[in-house]
Amino acid sequence: METRIAVIGIVVSNTDAVEELNEILHEYRGFIIGRMGIPYRQKKMNIISIAVDAPQDVISALSGKIGKLPGVSSKTAYAGG
C-alpha cells in the first residue's frame, strides 16, 4: 500500500488529555518517524510535532482521534507529490 509523509502539529491546552494522547500515539507507533515535544510552561500548554509515514487512511484516522480529544487541536501537513 502506498504511504505518504506528513507532519501533525498538535497543541495541548488541556493537560488532562496528555495521557490519552500518548495512548493514541503509542497505538500508531509503527507509523511514527519522529516526535518532538515542547512544554510551554508560561502558557501551561504543550506543543508536539509528529512526523509519520503511513497510508492516507491511517493518517486520517490518527489525526481524527487526536482532534476529538478535549483541549487538543491539531493540523496535518502533507509532503508534496
Automatic annotation (TrEMBL):
<dbReference type="InterPro" id="IPR045865">
    <property type="entry name" value="ACT-like_dom_sf"/>
</dbReference>
<dbReference type="InterPro" id="IPR023860">
    <property type="entry name" value="FeFe-hyd_TM1266"/>
</dbReference>
<dbReference type="InterPro" id="IPR027271">
    <property type="entry name" value="Acetolactate_synth/TF_NikR_C"/>
</dbReference>
<dbReference type="Pfam" id="PF21699">
    <property type="entry name" value="TM1266-like"/>
</dbReference>
<protein>
    <submittedName>
        <fullName>Iron-only hydrogenase system regulator</fullName>
    </submittedName>
</protein>
